[in-house]
Amino acid sequence: MENGCEIPWSEGRWTHEPVRVEQDGDDLLVEAAEGSDAWRTTSYGFVHDTEHALVCPMPQDSAVEVGFVARFEEQFDQAGIFLRAAEDCWVKAGLEFADGTPQVGAVVTNPASDWSVAPVPQWVDRRVTIRASRSGDAVTVRARVDDEDFRLVRVLPLPEDAELEAGPMVCAPTRAGLVVRFTSWRSTAADGSLHP
Which PANTHER family match (predicted)? Predict the structure, then answer.
């Protein structure tokens, strides 16, 4: 996987404006609104379309990486990457504090949401990177902490001709005051294959 190039924070547009955005050196501090979330229907019966995602176009045969510091402590605190093709066709992937522990996972929505997670309690207060690689009719999501190897999170279908936008995402469904420090946003070449 190539290093690629940094995407300036100023290049993106917010799907929904956060409470506060502040640049701190090269990092971006983003405060989420209480109740912000992205979900459609499944199991809960509601539609939430209030996530804070800073997105720009993601062409075919490319990948996007988002880095942030994982300081979560309240139910459903979350950050990661958001990929949006339409109001009812999107993906959020990243780290979410659920049921007392950080979980790495993804929500895939087309048009109803699903959710898959795996506990990663050792990722607290560390630098997390989420990577989404787009090739053909699929997106491959990987994640890592610090400089460890990327681990596979999800492979999901996406129409080849979808006009996709992607970038950093933060939500705080249950509380006010969540601030996430995003450390990087970069574009790279798509993964050469699913397996190393």
Answer: REGULATION OF ENOLASE PROTEIN 1
